[in-house]
Specification:
four-stranded antiparallel β-sheet, 23% helix, alpha+beta, 26% strand
Amino acid sequence: MRIITVSQNEAGQRLNKLLEKYLNLAPKSFVYKMLRKKNITLNGKKCDGSEKLAHGDEIKLFLADETIEKFSKVSVQTVKKVSLDIVYEDDHVLFINKPSGMLSQKAKENDESLVEYVTDYLLDSGQLTREDLQTFRPGICNRLDRNTSGLVGAGKSLAGLQLLSEVWKDRTIHKYYQCIVAGKLEGQQEIQGFLKKDGRTNQVKVSKTELPDSLPIRTECEPLSTNGRYTLLKVTLITGRSHQIRAHLASIGHPIVGDMKYGDAKVNEEVRSRYGIRSQLLHSYKTVLPAMREPLSYLSGKEVTAPLPQTFCRMMAGEGLLADSGVGKGG
């Protein structure tokens, strides 16, 4: 027999969901059979798996240790040690300033991404054990393109992961970016259009008129500094589509500097030669959280910022784009 005492991190989910994680190699039919035969009980009573778990609940598995071990496997990918730039952390969430070049999530099975680095950090710091991973996996709540830098939120607890992901999904969170674009932009403006993604090439097309299968997009731009050749922009996402900022700005003739997919080849070659820039200068520098539900209500209205990368600052200094607003220091 084995006893599982529900931790704060495991509370709030249905019993069957926890059992499917704990006995992750067992067929679902086996789990439900054990529930029907009372070989699995909740607080000493028969259960059917639909029960919502509370902190301190006691689950008893009247199964042989060999059976439990046969149906349980915790796999932890070994990854290189990475020093994460954590700009905010508490018991439930953390915000990382992701560098350009790092994947937010795996694209292939053997990839290493921010998800694995967060798990490794929590294991190394003793905030998570391998046993914890049987029933809970930390995860990120938003994604940035590989070569876009800036803020990514992650959940350290089940509540943190669920509630933080929720505000990104319902778009009540406010996201602000900084970028350097080719050409001169003047005056705050909201640009609108329609975006269509080609899954085959992983590229998007932006048009002023609606296309079949396209989605409406809205992007707000505020010039902070310009030298006539380049403009430092603050960008606010009204809608959040794949590659929206990069493709939208390129569609109006102001591609982001260093963008190899939607940018200007001549501009990219110049900034690579002068400043060593090899990826788009697009940075998610500020996030403002909306009203949050318990147990994350203490985060309501919280503002998190991430300093700009050195390559970004180097070009700003070289081109005289340093703004009085403190943008060069991360906003």
